[in-house]
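Good morning C.,

I know you're traveling, so I'll keep this short. The sequence:
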Amino acid sequence: MDLEAIRKEMTSAFLGDREYVKAAKDGYSDFSYPKLIKFMKFHTERYRVPGFGHFMTMQTHTAFGMELMTASFMPGEGVSVPYCLIDIMTMGKKRTVFVEYYDCRAKKGGTSPNGNSGQNELAGSNEPFGAGEFPGLDEVAARFSNLQDYEEKPKWYVSERAPYSLIKCGDVGNEKELEDMILSSVRAYSAAADEAGSDPANIAGLEAFRGRMINEGNPSSSVLEKVFGAEGAKDFFKSCVMQL
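The tokens, ready to paste straight into the viewer:
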């Protein structure tokens, strides 16, 4: 699995005809851990996307054969779509791909946009708020449901994911399907963002979720704290991963 090629394809699929401003190189563009021996090398690409928010990719090369890619789609201008986080890992013949959606929009769960506690008139009175609102994401989730689910350790954020998230794994034999899943997800998410309205009230939900990711832990917490220290890791997460 060529993660550099996937990074380029994800970037093209999402940015497409959108206007964007690429961040200038700084101390977060390229870094390593430890600084002298450089067992892990990191490279980030960051974009401000007017009308959406921010988009970031981070590649990690390791001296022990593991390769990682993270893509963060932060709808920080209040666009009414979930926050999307994609994580890809290759290790030997093993392949793991997480396409995670976190619905941080205003009035989620407690009161829907229609004023119904815990209900959504769009999907039906027995469905949770947000159900059925993104048919493109639902379709991609259904199309790749046959791929093997990755068995995760319990973490607080697992229960926060939207049901159309894809937490999959495989080996080199599944590589093409997993790559198709990644790019199909990005294209469906991009289309959903194009079609969605916006609400400035959504920003508070993103900020609150970002706070939980920082304070309660996220998949990159331990590595980032080793690289930057506890306070530096918080700044990296705010400035790069989930920038508002």
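Safe travels,
E.
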